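re: ur question from yesterday

yeah so i grabbed the chain u mentioned. its 107 aa long if i counted rite. heres the sequnce exactly as i have it in my notes:
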Amino acid sequence: LTMVVRTITSMVLHLSASSISGYGISRARILGSHGRSVSWLPYVGIAIALHASFNLIASLDIFPENAEILGVVGLLLIFVLANSAFGIMRRKIRELDLSVPCPIGNR
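ran it thru and got these structure tokens back, copy pasting raw so excuse formatting
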């Protein structure tokens, strides 16, 4: 069971981390093309921190006392953290899409 849950949470984590770093890179390119200087590095840093948090929480079950409980709680925390990050990024991507004019057809 732990392996299945960890596989699912890993998938959600990587979706979230990719969306965060991809958003940062896209934001820098889109806003940069409109004359605003924006860095993508903070978003990649957030994605790295999210992944590091995932690794830390996933390893909570190495402690011999209450290893099973810590493992289950850790996996639930990972799922909530990654799912929340993914939802926030979906909203931010929509906001970015609406904040600049669409370049398609405006050549």
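noticed a couple things. The two ends are 54 Å apart (CA to CA). also The longest helix spans residues 67-99.
anyway ttyl
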